Amino acid sequence: MMNIFNEKDKPFSPERIGEYYNTVVPDTLDLAERAEWGLNHFTSTIDETNDYEMYWLTGPISMSFKSCPLMACQPKAMEAMAMLRIMSGSREGIELEDKMVRMLASCIGDDGIYWVMPTQGKKPWLGPEEMRPYANILGQGRMMSAMAAWYQYTGNQMWKELTDRMIEGLDKIVVVHKDNYAYFPIGGYMEEEYFKSCYIKDKGWKDTSEPMNEKGGEEGSLFNHSGMIAGILSNWYALTGNKTALRLAGELVRFFTKPKFWADYPGGEYPWVSGADHAHWDGHWHGHINTLRAILEYAVVTNDPRLKQFVRDGYEWARQKKFARIGLVDSQGCGCGRLIGLAVKLSREGVGDYWEDVDLYIRNHGTEMQFTPDVIDELKKYTVPGELEKLRFYDHHIQPEHGKRKEKALHAMIGGFGSNYGMTLAVTCCCSPHGNMGLFYAWDGMLEHNDGTVRIHLLLNRASPWLDIDSFLPFEGKVIIRIKDAAEIFVRIPLWVDKKSVEVRKENQTVHFEWFGQYVRAKELKPTETVEIIFDMAERIEKWGHPEIDNRDGIGWIFLLANGPVSKEQTPENTLTMRFRGNTLVELSPLPTYMDGQKTLLYAKRLEKYKSHTVKYKKVTRFSTPFKLKW
Ligand SMILES: [Zn+2]
Q: What is the rounded average pLDDT of the residues 403-421?
């Protein structure tokens, strides 16, 4: 490994990228606050005694290692950490983060590949020593994505050198090129899950034959194995003009869009529907959503309208699955974050308008799966030894934590995302990074600034150099926009609002305004002015039928409503009743339970939380940055 750092002792992170100020805001959903919690989680799960490797599982029952973080998921955390710092301005644990980032960068070889190295028996969880160094394919894409974020975040040219080198390495050594397409093989030398599709440095691939369907590779998904790589290659081309990146992205996209990988449900399609042309799919949620986003990135840089439509169809197909209405799409805390990323990207690129979806996702499942301080306080109530451990968990071989370590684990959980529906006992290095990235995608997407005009797509608390938003939703139908440097604003009003009830006030005076579709415009604005938008709050009940119970996507799904019979008709047993105030789910009935009927914490505290219609206020330090990260 090489010495890649010029200034060895100087922290890597930029010193200051924005302004801090103290103020009082409505105590409503605040993504910047959640970003601070996310940083608490990540910096608390870096283990100094194990070369700054992150724990895989963090919970009162265990803080334990596994191969996944180092091979693929810890680079996801590295990417998320840059995003969370941009959102919150938090400096918590920055020295530790710095050491972790250096360690990850040092895993990149002269050949550009991100390797898991031998450790002379010190880390058995990283797999057989004789097979190391090995390279996980998803891990290459995740590291590339992290480096692209850190290149922008720090401006350090080293990240560009490393990323360019990785692209050359993958193109020359790892990928298999065919006529006009390319693929990453799935046949490696090791047997076990997460190792079986790894490339071994000394041996290469065991089997380079072309995958014939989507259901191969780690976690039974070719798309999970390598799909996202085409996206970061496209993004890297857009950022730096690297032509190899664009060429390889095109080869991969032509492979991933082959009809054999789509509409592969054995039950077939409706008559007159060509599902493979419309990105119908069945299978690994994460793999498909990330591959759709990768195809979109490529479609954007090549301006390919056919591919853009393919991705739009694939997204609209995805949002018909399970309870996508609230972003509850799989058992893990990361599924919704990935969906938010795709929906924001499609909307921003003009391929569709999914801001209403994003509002529903981020107010509900996109934040519900994050462990907040009050959920941790709930877990701390289990003081009788063994009581907490009796709550469900999927691996009963894992030993419970005790004493100080248990306290440490409970603190470290704050900001992490649950890895199963239960929300009880564990967060993982898979779900926490992607759940937290979901917060960033919504935060970044909700506000667009260009030449004195700001478009606001989501009515959430938010600080920025151009204006600050104080949101009173869902307690009151009100947002206050504090102008700093914007002459004109367009504010998207959610679909549930009765447009006739909307009123706009400037400096407490009701003013005339225009509608542009779903957007309200206010103009001729000056610094320090306030614009208040007021409308009637509304509650509604929605009933959704429970889809057929499906346990193929992993742990947890089978537990939800396991007692209910499945039928096409809505019966009390198989219907979910959702009570919304605005787009915030305030009551869910029945609540998810485990097989034995035991309640989970999921959505359990909502009704109590939103009992009041009067907003509370809180003192905060707001952080505002003009920094833009292209993701
Ligand atoms: Zn996950």
A: 89
CA gap 28, 30 in Å, rounded: 6
pTM, two decimal places: 0.95
Determine the distance separating the centroid of ligand 1 and the alpha carbon of 336, expressed in angstroms: 10
Secondary structure of residue 145 in the 3-state scheme: helix
Q: Residue 395 pLDDT > 60, yes or no?
A: no
CA nearest neighbour of 550 among 537, 538, 562: 562
Give the Å distance between the CA of 20 and the centre of ligand 1.
33
Handedness of CA 456, 332, 334, 249 (dihedral sign): negative
Q: Which of 265-279, 383-397, 518-532 is least confident?
A: 383-397
Q: Identify the three-state secondary structure at position 57.
A: strand
Q: Which two tokens stand for residue 57?
A: 């599982």
- CA of 219 relative to ligand 1 center, distance in Å: 12
Question: Distances from the Cα of 506 to the Cαs of 309, 525, 547, in angstroms?
Answer: 41, 9, 47
Say how far apart CA 467 and CA 487 lie, in whole Å. 10
Q: What is the pLDDT of residue 49?
A: 96
Cross-strand partners of 510: 505
Q: Give me ligand 1 centre to Cα 227, in Å.
A: 16
Beta bridge partners of 441: none
Q: 3-state SS string over 206-245?
A: CECCCCCCCCCCHHHCHHHHHCCHHHHHHHHHHHHCCHHH
Q: Give, for 168, the enclosing helix (H) or strand (E).
A: helix 157-169
* Secondary structure element (H or E) that encloses residue 336, with its range: helix 335-348
Q: CB of 234 within 8 A of CB of 298?
A: yes
Question: Would strands 182-183 and 176-177 be described as parallel, antiparallel, or unpaired?
Answer: antiparallel
Contact 359, 446 (CB under 8 A): no
431 CA → ligand 1 middle, Å: 3
| Model pLDDT for residues 416-439, shown as the tens digit of each residue | 998 875 545 789 999 999 999 999
For 318-327, what is each residue's pLDDT tens digit?
Answer: 999 888 999 9
Q: How many angstroms separate the alpha carbon of residue 420 from the centre of ligand 1?
A: 9
Q: What is the pLDDT of residue 421?
A: 57
Residue with the bigger pLDDT between 421 and 509: it is: 509
| Predicted local distance difference test score (pLDDT) of residue 591 | 78
